[in-house]
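Morning!

This is the sequence you dropped in the shared folder:
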Amino acid sequence: MTDPRTTVVVITHNRRPELLRTLGHLAVLPEQPQVVVVDNASTDGTSGAVARHHPGVRLLRPGRNLGAVGRNLAVRRIRTPYVAFCDDDSWWAPGSLAGAADLLDAHPALGTVTARIVVEPDGTEDPIVKELRDSPVPGPPWLPGPALGSFLAAATVLRADAFRAAGGFHPRLWLGGEEELLAADLAADGWWLTYADHLTIHHQPSVVRDSTLRRTHGIRNTLWFTWLRRPAGYALRRTLRLARTVPRDTASLRAFAEATAALPWVLRERRVLPPDVEARLRTLEPAQRDSTARSYTG
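The structure's back. Tokens below.
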């Protein structure tokens, strides 16, 4: 069962063993998807290893670490109608890419499909799955699963044209909660986001990660998204709530400092969401306050 509808895009940086494991899993998928790897300036021999062990993979080497924008670089070059993202430490289950493409084929207003995340090696569900499954966001009756307010890049298949029209991932956000802004812009363009419980992606978290830096970027990017897209009163309240609730440490202070220093460009680019999309996001507030899966602890 080959399926030419979807290209898989993987960004990586200095995680050669994890990437090779992921490419091994993708290589045996029945869909036989096209795979594009963006090597974000790795210094551990990643590019050479991919060329040797997976010569059928398209390898992009931008020469510097683009973070999430590496995905934009890849999507500009693909020709399939759909793009599936996964990280270098995650991989799609057999049949899930075809299943996501079927949903996108069947529902022309559907922009993204997010899969169930299974954490390896134990095979347990990621805690975020319950929140996706129980999403309170109201959606139209035709939607094939719960409506979402955002998506997880490492577990989502998107309509490539919608991604490009929305501008892809913002170049300033780099990594860490970078999906929230793009998800809101997709919704503002009229696309719906959904969760599909029958699709699966496996995630075996890499031990090579800087959790402190990721938390800094997560807080900073949340502030930037809030200031870029949410109404002024809400943005002020959410900023104050974050200031009260994030850990009192260097990572949080750095996040607020970086966010505040960027106010000139944030104000230049500020574009408040349409009322219907804003109302949709407001339904998520209680779940976000009570969430353990979305905590800023790394």
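Headline: Residues 150 and 180 are 6 Å apart (CA to CA).

More detail when I'm at my desk.
O.
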